[in-house]
Amino acid sequence: MAGAIALSARNGFIPRPHATGATTESAAVRWSLIGLAVLFLVLFLFIPLAVVFASALEKGIAPYFASFRSPDALAAIRLTLLAAGIAVPLNLLFGVSAAWAVAKFEFVGKSLLITLIDLPFSVSPVVSGLIYVLLFGLQGLLGPWLVAHDVKIIFAVPGIVLATIFVTFPFVARELIPLIQAQGNDEEEAALTLGASGWQTFLRVTLPNIKWGLLYGVILCNARAMGEFGAVSVVSGHIRGMTNTMPLHIEILYNEYQYVSAFAVASLLALLALVTLIAKSAVEWRSRQSSGSLTAENWEEAVP
Amino acid sequence: MAIVLKQRSILPGFGLTLGFALFYLSLIVLIPISAAFVKASALTWAQFWHTVSAPRALASYRLSFGASLIGAVINLFFGLLVAWVLVRYSFPGKRLFDSLVDLPFALPTAVAGISLTAIYSSHGWIGQYLDAVGIKAAYSRLGVVIALTFVGLPFVVRTVQPVLEDLDKDVEEAAASLGANRWQTFARVILPAILPAALTGFAMAFARAVGEYGSVVFISGNMPMRTEITPLLIITKLEQYDYAGATAIAVVMLIVSFTLLLAINLLQKWSARRHTAGSSADAEFPEVVKQDFALQQG
């Protein structure tokens, strides 16, 4: 602060008592930067979102709702819910297990394991679908065996579920690992010493500490599970009413120039995205509240 | 792979949770990915090389990597700007913009794809004005860049934001009191501190864009040699029942993914080290800042 005053005094300005000029920018610079940033965000985020709803409602309310009444649309919605309904709980179970093992224990190969958990994020969605085709498809490694036993995975619902699981694999785990690591082991060790079982310790001590992060991971996992396009597209075979999820149904409608219907189904997924963003903000706010309620400092105040 | 040497903790469940995690990881991720390499190994080296270096494949790499790079550079610049504006200034609607930054993570790529196409086609909200000045945005390489910029938008903002929030104002005051103007303070004090995080975000945006499919296929027009991205080439080969060709190109993409994942991990480690060094109580001046000041004084 002294520097700021000295600087402006040297330049012949009379320093104001609250002058913070040295560590901030002039109003003109500030507002141009804000303007440029806002312009970028409006161009790339607001307009694409607005266009989805504007195009869906272009012909009015009735055609909008009619788009959801076709049997193919309903089948696509059902399949999307089914795939997410299987993928999310399985990845939740994996996420909690992996986070517990990685965050609570030391073992050789831990950082390799963390890297491998992230792997599905860095693989192209198309390649994610392809690897299942190469494993379970007719030409695949297990193809002849599956044909002999009359099991259909590719171009059928199991393939869609598998591809969905793959692309949403890391969400819960990578949300929980840093969170559980930051909590440390003290509280759990105390609970165990006081006679709690391992399961009780997890439910009563660990879970309350990680619940907001867990919820956030599940929300993200679900959004991606319902919206996945590339991976599911490769394994689905695009059989109408059978193996089309909502994003695939959108593609078909769009390619048939049924724009209103395509954007109507898209608007459902856009609403899901908005709910996801709102839930994220709410979870962040809640976790700040709960982490603020018990910090090292006020712990000492609360427990004299 | 992960061999347990000793278990120091008294906490239970190590064997069960690690066992399940490894089983599930192998089943869902490792075995299927290995399948791609096993399938590719059935090709001879000459066949493999012929497929992955065909002119159409090379054109697709150029487009995928080139457009991803341009998108990531745009996101590096605007990501820094957006992070700066969100952390340092207050303005109406700031909370809304902050939440909306994550939209490309939450919005399904197919939805983004048809929406961007509608905006930039010659009758679209923005496309009609670009058309009037002779710029063709949809169904061109520019369209690919626009889509890839969209999908990578949140990364730099979200990696830089926390670092910028934790940055000590004292350092900037010190720089100012030593006679630096605002631009010098930014370039020599603030930028070095946020650079590792910014580069991490840049690499993530690039990696995401290289593999992107859903948002691009609608806007690109998918012309072979011109607007065909590598993931689309894989799909095209699959639809022609050219499994060997699809596998060969997929293996190239997998190797690129692994390399980028490794690079991002290294960048993150660098960023974390710099971040903690910069914000810990007894090291208020990060090493680089000290050196910079030394240079200036000399």
Describe the structure.
The complex is a heterodimer of chains A (304) and B (298). Chain A is globular, with a radius of gyration of 26 Å. Mean pLDDT of chain A is 86; it is low at 1-19 and 293-304. Chain A is built from 15 helices and no strands. In chain A, 76% of the residues lie in helices and 0% in strands. Chain B is mainly alpha-helical and 298 residues long. Chain B is built from 14 helices and no strands. In chain B, helix 1 packs across helix 13 (243-279), helix 3 crosses helix 10 (182-211) and helix 12 (230-239) runs antiparallel to helix 13. The radius of gyration of chain B is 23 Å and the shape is globular. Residues 1-7 and 278-298 of chain B have low confidence and may be disordered. At the A-B interface, helix 1, helix 2, helix 4, helix 5 and helix 6 of A face helix 1, helix 3, helix 4, helix 5 and helix 6 of B.
- Poorly predicted runs of chain A are 1-19, 293-304
pLDDT under 50 segments of chain B (min length 5)? 1-7, 278-298
Our count of helices of chain B gives 14
Helix content of chain A: over 70%
Largest pleated sheet of chain B: none
Task: Report the span from N to C terminus of chain B.
Answer: 52 Å
Radius of gyration of chain A: 26 Å
Total helix count of chain A?
A: 15
- Give the C-alpha Rg of chain B: 23 Å
- Indicate the structural class of chain A: mainly alpha
Please, what is the average pLDDT of chain A? 86
Q: Tell me what portion of residues of chain B adopts beta-strand conformation.
A: under 5%
Describe the sheet with the most strands of chain A.
Answer: none
The coarse overall form of chain B would be: globular
What string, H for helix and E for strand, traces the elements of chain A in order? HHHHHHHHHHHHHHH
User: How many E strands of chain A?
Assistant: 0
> How many E strands of chain B?
0
Q: What is the ordering of alpha helices and beta strands of chain B?
A: HHHHHHHHHHHHHH
Nearest-integer average pLDDT of chain B? 87
Largest interface: A-B, 108 and 104 residues
What helical percentage do the residues of chain B reach?
over 70%
